[in-house]
Every structure is written in structure tokens, then in C-alpha cells.
Amino acid sequence: MQVTAAKLSQLLAKRHDKDLFVAECKDGPTVGTSHFRMDAWVMKKSWSRPTFLAYEIKVARGDFMRDEKWQGYLPLCNQFYFVSPAGTIKIEEVPAEAGLIWCTQNGTRLLTKKKAPYRPLKPETLEKVFRYVLMSRCRVMSDWYSLKNDADWWRAWMVHKKLDYDFGHQVSKAIRERVKEEINLVATENERLKRENQELVKIRDLLKTMGIGDEVPYLWKVQHRLAQLRGNTPGQAILKLNAAIGSIQSLVKEVEKIEEAQNATRG
């Protein structure tokens, strides 16, 4: 894959997405005076240790070998780097004042092959660069505070949206599990009722063979029929039989008294 200078500049911008990144940065006005133009100039956003970096992009080895202007960039940065496709510039060829960054062969990442030394700077040496960046590359926003507040609001909204999404996902998962559990319970109950219904059908068919049909669905009829089948007499019949037996016994006693009276008369 051929790596272009534009691609390398994009990768540098991505690497410094949290910093002030200025592509094709100059150290003064374009017209009227001579000036340097760095392929990229970066100001790290730090109050405690401000750091400024300059980058020179080289996609051809011959361009690197002929370059002499890079030394003019050194007073404008704390660290200076050459940036090239992998192998275009060899590590041992890099001057002591500079560092080296390679782009991977697939053109997706930057790798630091040699770290650039850190050099202290005098603030006044950057005055022209600052003026160029402010006047030619920046736009002052009068409603910055409003935009900042809006940005904060949207950041908070995104955070809450993520929380809402996670909460909703958890609730949805819990509901799915509960519904699945209820479905399993209903399926189990349906299976039990199905088996019970099958047993009741068998009992109904058995009762029909015993002469008990659907038209006589009374419990006492079933009990009566079952008692008959067991050879037992139902309780009401037993009471009647006991009463009959008592009457017969009384009648026998009366007959015996009559016979005794007749025998006494004959004698």
C-alpha cells in the first residue's frame, strides 16, 4: 500500500486529537518576508510543562537525503520528528537532534522508532508562530461559553444515554428471563392438566362400563354402585333390613305365646 504525505498528516492529526494541531504551519506572514513552513506543528495542552513539536513528512528517500531546512525548525519546537513510510528513512540516518516515526505498511498506525530529545525553548522564539496561528489559523468564537455549555450538556446527555441503554438492556434481559420462566411454568402446568384429563377420561369410560353415565353425575350414585359391586349393601338398606328382622323376631315371640296358650288348654 502506497502511503502519501496527506495520509501521514491525517495520522499525525489523529495522534494529536487532544492537542492543538496545525498542519502546514508557518513561522510568520506568507507575503513580504522569508519564512519556514513545517508540515505539522503541535502545542501540547499543558500549563505545567508546555511542549511544542514539529514534524517533517518524507515519503521519498531522496527528499530526505537532500533536505537541509529542517534545522531551521529546531528553534520553533521542543522536539522535532521526521515522519515517513516504514523503511524510507533508516534509524541510523536520523540526526541526533531529531526523532523518527514510521507509518505501518498497511497505512493505519504511526510507530515511534526513535524518540526525539527534548530541548528547552525561549518563549520569545515562538512569538511569530503564535501570531501566525492566532491570526491565520484560528477563529475566535464570541459565543464560546454558550457552545461550551451546550457541549457539556451533550456530553452529559450521552453519558445518561449510555446509562439508560445499559439499564434498559438489563431490564429487557430480566423481562425476557421472567417471560421465559412463566412460559415454562405454563407449559409444565398444561402438561400436568393434560395428563390429569387423560386419567379422567379413563375413569369416565370405566364408570360407563359400570352403568354410570354422564346423565347421573352424582357422588352418591357412584358410591351406591360401587357398594353393590363390592357386595355390600348401602347403609339405608341395612337400616331397613334391621327393622324387618326386629319385626320378624317380635312376630315369632307372639306365635310362640299363642302356641303355649293352646297347649295349656288341651292339657
Note the topology.
Elements: H1 5-15, E1 20-26, E2 37-43, E3 52-57, H2 61-66, E4 79-85, E5 98-103, E6 110-114, H3 127-136, H4 144-209, H5 219-229, H6 235-266
Parallel strand pairs: 3-4, 4-5
Antiparallel strand pairs: 1-2, 2-3, 5-6
What does this protein structure show overall?
With 267 residues, this protein is α/β, with parallel strands linked by helices. Helices cover 51% and strands 14% of the residues. The longest helix is centred in the middle third of the chain and has 66 residues, at 144-209. The model has no long low-confidence stretch (mean pLDDT 80).
Strand order of the largest sheet: 1-2-3-4-5-6
Distance between the termini: 153 Å
User: Compute the gyration radius: what is it?
Assistant: 54 Å
Largest sheet: number of strands, sense, barrel closure: 6 strands, mixed
Order of helices and strands: HEEEHEEEHHHH
Percentage of residues in helical conformation: 40-55%
